[in-house]
């Protein structure tokens, strides 16, 4: 498991090769502000081999946050992260391993009949109540997450997942009443508090796509204060002092900067100003870490950035400038970049040799 000392040792080994604030505080110690994601790619042996090589190169060169999810590439991504952790010389206790649960995963390949697969593997054995399933494969019920978390521990071959995300909880809002969804979240937070107390996870969070980008009236909107109230309540029910909901993951890049630009959350109670604030501002005031997904717009921004924005960002290549946009946003800890190619790892980790923009320079981009 990641430890405070292990992650600081990793920083001491690599910190001098990078620019200002490349390593940033992240539970239980520090994490690189460029992380490796494992979402894209077909569920094949070839892509497994590419990821294995890329993850090893990342760990060997200054990236100590690896992000995956149980459903990515039919569980192959989690398994390949586990293989790479096993094979590397880098200490396990210096690496933050993050995964997610919410979408019921296939196993190794896509079945011919996904509906039948879900019914046979999850509904008939009693793992999931079909009433709680949205879009045929999404559930955030505590019993389901408990089951998925055990499988993730086994796929990753680790005794603790450092950061466990509830995956796209806003998907539930497409078919279910918001109050029911917040109740489900609270019950799942209770489970995650228990698993945290048992040492199976380090901290937990929400990984989202729509929830923290859209306006309050939108169907998939989540209120961050309400989510945090539910985490506080869950901790109280379980009898722990401080809740372990410490991280938000959300898409953020030049084209999807809503978490910074849109004031969708109420002002924090101790704020000087009245009126709504952005998710990044609310998260910062609440002491949450923010990790960005799709930092390269799923590849599109690696070759093309609006010239006026590119001109403000440091980097030798377009991809590096795009990554430096995400890791410069105030309140962001780590920009995740999906990379199954070792050449991309080398290019992307070198983004961290440039200093990020300061807060006022970042603000100025939008003026
Ligand atoms: N809702 C959620 O929870 C959610 C949603 C999306 C993503 N995520 C997480 O966030 C991570 C990052 O997002 P993402 O993978 O969707 O998108 P991304 O990081 O924006 O883009 C990844 C794509 O960019 C390519 N790429 C990487 N570096 C490059 C470079 N220097 N030059 C050209 N192309 C480059 C990758 O190719 P190669 O593979 O060939 O290197 C891959 O196809 C994911 O992997 C996942 O862990 C979470």
Automatic annotation (TrEMBL):
Domain NADP-dependent oxidoreductase residues, every copy: 34-214
GO molecular function, one term: oxidoreductase activity
Organism of origin: Halonotius aquaticus
A GO cellular component entry from the record: cytosol
Name the UniProt record assigns to this protein: Aldo/keto reductase
SUPFAM superfamilies for this protein: NAD(P)-linked oxidoreductase
InterPro entries with a match to the protein in the record: AKR (IPR020471), NAD(P)_OxRdtase_dom_sf (IPR036812), NADP_OxRdtase_dom (IPR023210)
CDD domains for this protein: AKR_unchar (cd19099)
């Amino acid at each position: 498991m990641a430890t405070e000392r292990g992650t600081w040792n990793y920083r001491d080994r690599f910190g001098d090769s990078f620019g200002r604030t490349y390593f940033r505080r992240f539970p239980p110690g520090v994490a690189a502000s460029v992380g490796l994601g494992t979402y894209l790619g077909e569920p094949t042996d070839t892509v497994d081999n590419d990821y294995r090589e890329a993850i090893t190169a990342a760990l060997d060169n200054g990236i100590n946050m690896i992000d995956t999810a149980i459903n990515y590439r039919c569980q192959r991504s989690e398994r390949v992260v586990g293989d790479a952790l096993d094979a590397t010389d880098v200490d396990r206790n210096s690496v933050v391993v993050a995964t997610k649960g919410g979408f019921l995963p296939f196993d190794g390949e896509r079945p011919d009949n996904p509906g039948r697969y879900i019914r046979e593997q999850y509904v008939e054995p009693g793992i999931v109540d079909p009433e709680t399933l949205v879009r045929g494969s999404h559930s955030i019920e505590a019993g389901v997450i408990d089951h998925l978390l055990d499988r993730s521990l086994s796929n990753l071959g680790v005794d603790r997942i450092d950061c466990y995300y509830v995956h796209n909880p806003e998907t539930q809002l497409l078919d279910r009443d918001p109050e029911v969804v917040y109740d489900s979240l609270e019950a799942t937070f209770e489970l995650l508090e228990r698993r945290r107390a048992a040492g199976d996870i380090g901290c937990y969070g929400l990984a989202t796509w729509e929830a923290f980008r859209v306006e309050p009236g939108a169907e998939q909107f989540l209120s961050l204060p309400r989510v945090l109230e539910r985490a506080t309540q869950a901790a109280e029910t379980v009898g722990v002092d401080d809740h372990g909901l410490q991280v938000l993951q959300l898409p953020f890049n030049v084209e999807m900067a809503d978490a910074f630009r849109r004031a969708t959350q109420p002002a924090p109670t101790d704020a000087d100003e009245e009126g709504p604030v952005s998710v990044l501002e609310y998260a910062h005031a609440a002491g949450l870490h923010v990790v960005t997904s799709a930092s390269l717009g799923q590849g599109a921004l690696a070759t093309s950035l609006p010239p006026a924005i590119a001109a403000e960002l440091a980097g030798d290549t377009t991809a590096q400038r795009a990554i430096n946009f995400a890791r410069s946003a105030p309140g962001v800890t780590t920009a995740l970049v999906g990379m199954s190619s070792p050449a991309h790892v080398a290019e992307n980790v070198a983004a961290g040799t440039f200093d990020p923009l300061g807060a006022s320079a970042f603000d100025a981009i939008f003026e």
